[in-house]
Amino acid sequence: MRRFSIVLAILLSLGLIIGGAITGESYVGSNCSGESQNSFSHLPVQEEALKDVPENGDVVYIAVYADGDFKKAIANALSEVVRRHGLKPVLVDNYRKYDLKGRFVVAFFPVEGTSKGFLSREVWLSGILYYSYPGDVETIFNSTLRYSLSESSIDEYASRICQTSEERAVKEGFRKNECAVAYWWNLKAKVGILRKGDPYELIAEEVSSALGNMLASK
Asked: Are strands 88-91 and 102-116 parallel, antiparallel or unpaired?
């Protein structure tokens, strides 16, 4: 009986230790992630008329394609990063009419999920963040929103977006073209119930930090 009591006490202690670790943990990570960037200044030939776009480089139009708490958290985080760089964020829904009007950012996350356990909360998503200095909406509209992303193809797809954007810039004669795409597959945030934190905000911070890097390098 005494031995049973000792074993029970040990098991309870281990349970408390493990439970405390889980309820106090905070984690952000992804199965795969990366960036693709492309930048050039057009060298005009004789009598070639080049376009100076966007119309207003101080405005950043932001479109977020995600659901519920994800959309709100990401939109707020992206807007804050834009402000910190001395630019004006403008959140839009029907973004097609803003082509070449200002800088453009779209957060497109078609895969997402949530899980609320007894000891922690976990959320995850997959998708891309696209940034264009000339405000190239046409490229992203004609590709991203009609494409089925997968873990095996998302890196190749991100690279192809900026290649397509450059092709448009050359064809239409943009004086300057800057494109960047960050991508994540299964970007996951987990917060124990004893930790002060919102997993949606942790995800949003990860996404917005990528935009900060894009703006800092432009």
From this structure: unpaired
